[in-house]
Design brief:
This protein is α+β, with helices and mostly antiparallel strands. 47% of the residues lie in helices and 23% in strands. It has 2 domains: 2-74, Arc Repressor Mutant, subunit A (Orthogonal Bundle); 84-239, YebC, transcriptional regulation domain (Alpha-Beta Plaits, 2-Layer Sandwich), CATH 3.30.70.980. It holds the Pfam family Transcrip_reg.
């Protein structure tokens, strides 16, 4: 579990490091549009859209941008995006899952494959590494929202599977089947979370040396900076010293 939290810190570092707000907004808008197209355009009735809107608010995306992205899904002239999951191995044999939304499958596959190859890894078939991850829902709250015991009690009552409270906040995990109900119950008690989404959570993490870790962090950066890539998950841990060196 500690490894997962550290991995999340790596991803959070990337989010903060990316100075291109327009790129972040573009990715968020794409997810909002796709989520609204696949379900109802009402965030209260569409869990995926709700998660996308929450993510957009966390990045201070203007309300007008959010509403415009939802309206795109309703109109007939909006772009069509394919949802694709890429799986492969990075340096050191670390398992990596990449979720993308693209309007050009060939371009996305070619780019992502080249990132893996250049880093010393290789792109595999769908299913080649996802068996090492659990598809699960996560609901996150800031540390200040309630005490550890209060969050734990509320999570158990709501039907959550696990709770991790640390200095960085409260992480509540729920199965894909119960995630929506758990999120609703917690939001009624604690207000809007800072994150609510379905993720790929590694079952175990592997510690890597700094040389391998640096290659992996560079691969994560390359993937995250690609316009088509929405989320990247991996099952590795790096040293605090390397995180500090890389700007974490």
């Amino acid at each position: 579990m500690a490894g997962h939290s550290q991995f999340k810190n790596i991803m959070h570092r990337k989010g903060r490091q990316d100075a291109q707000k327009s790129k972040i907004f573009g990715k968020l808008a794409r997810e909002i549009t796709v989520a609204a197209k696949l379900g109802t355009p009402d965030p209260n009735m569409n869990p995926r859209l709700r998660a996308a809107v929450i993510a957009a608010r966390q990045e201070n995306m203007p309300k007008d941008n959010i509403e415009r992205a939802i309206k795109k899904a309703i109109g007939s002239d909006g772009e069509n995006y394919d949802e694709i999951r890429y799986e492969g191995y990075g340096p050191g044999g670390v398992a990596v899952i990449v979720e993308a939304l693209t309007d050009n499958r060939n371009r996305a596959a070619s780019d992502i494959r080249s990132f893996f190859t250049k880093s010393g890894g290789n792109l595999g078939e769908t299913g080649s590494v996802s068996f090492m991850f659990d598809r699960t829902g996560i609901i996150e709250y800031d540390r200040s929202v309630a005490s550890d015991d209060a969050v734990l009690d509320a999570a158990i009552e709501a039907g959550a599977d696990d709770v991790i409270s640390s200095e960085s906040g409260h992480e509540i995990y729920a199965s894909t089947e119960s995630y929506r109900d758990v999120a609703k119950a917690l939001e009624a008690k604690f207000g809007e979370p800072r994150k609510a989404a379905l993720i790929w959570k590694p079952q175990n993490t592997v510690s890597v040396d700094d040389e391998t870790g640096e290659k992996l962090l560079k691969l994560m950066d390359l993937l995250n900076e690609h316009d088509d890539v929405q989320n990247v998950y991996a099952n590795f841990e790096v040293s605090d010293a390397l995180l500090a060196k890389m700007g974490g």
